[in-house]
Amino acid sequence: MPVRKCFLRAVTCGQSGTARLFIFRNGVRALAWVCTLLFGSLLATAGLAAQVPLPKPRPAQAPRTEPAVQTDQREAPVDAAPPSQAAPAVAPALSACRLALTDAIAIAPSLPPIRGPGDCGGEDIVRLEAVVVSPTQRVALKPPAVLRCTMATAVANWVRADAAPLAASLGSLLSEVDNFDSFECRGRNRVKGAKLSEHGRANALDVRGLRLANGTVLSLTDRNLSRDIREKVLHSVCTRFTTVLGPGSDWYHEDHIHLDIAERRNNYKLCQWNVYDPMPQIAPLLPAARPDEAPAHTPEEEAGETAGEPEGRAEPPAQDSDAAKRKPPRAASGSKPAARPERRP
Q: How many domains does the chain have?
């Protein structure tokens, strides 16, 4: 077969290596042509872009523009909260006691609930700082007392209705209540293993005394304080509180008065406070020391002290003439008679 005919038929028969080489060369040429077209189109596009004018740069003194606020309600609904922000905590509802204990009655800010350790603590806790007697008079609790709202209300009512009028009857104003103890997680009388005290429930207050505006301090357990004043305080606290412990109740309440509103069966109340009389004045057993400004002893006094005679001893009274003539009593049987004193010239 002639070479020319085999070259024309190489595409179909594929029997010649020269034909395959021809096809490869044509493919390379076609690929180069396509690349030339693409490169030319890119150059044309770049040329057009170079002819488009760009905006001038923004001058430095130009005012800043705030970003536009999004007003599309479909994309940002009003009710939807941002996913990164948690919903605010809902404050617990105030109790009836907390609503009634207003600033017109007492300065008593609320405190978080106290929980533990153990059974200590409680709900509806306040810090009783002062009791408002009138718009111009406040009675401070020193230091402020941590109490339940119900106990704080009972203390405020006692101060307003009983303690303040008592101070007014003495010609002064009540200024302070001496707070010895309020909330404290402990057993009764601080005895280890004892039953939980009402102090551990923030339901008790220990009072030592009342201070008046003129500086007078009414120590409620002082025997020298007027008995009438102490009895008036006794009657008032035993009326308003369910537990009153003072001197005479036990050895743990000799220097203060314990008050609480513990609930008991059949509304039983415990009032143990003995109002003692002042201690009697006892003369000293030994004579007082001789003062330095006393006059010096006379020689006779010094001689008497040396002989063992007490200073200033009076002479014995003279015996009656009839008594001197009486015979001495007879000695008992079996005993020797007393020897007669020897006469001296």
A: 1
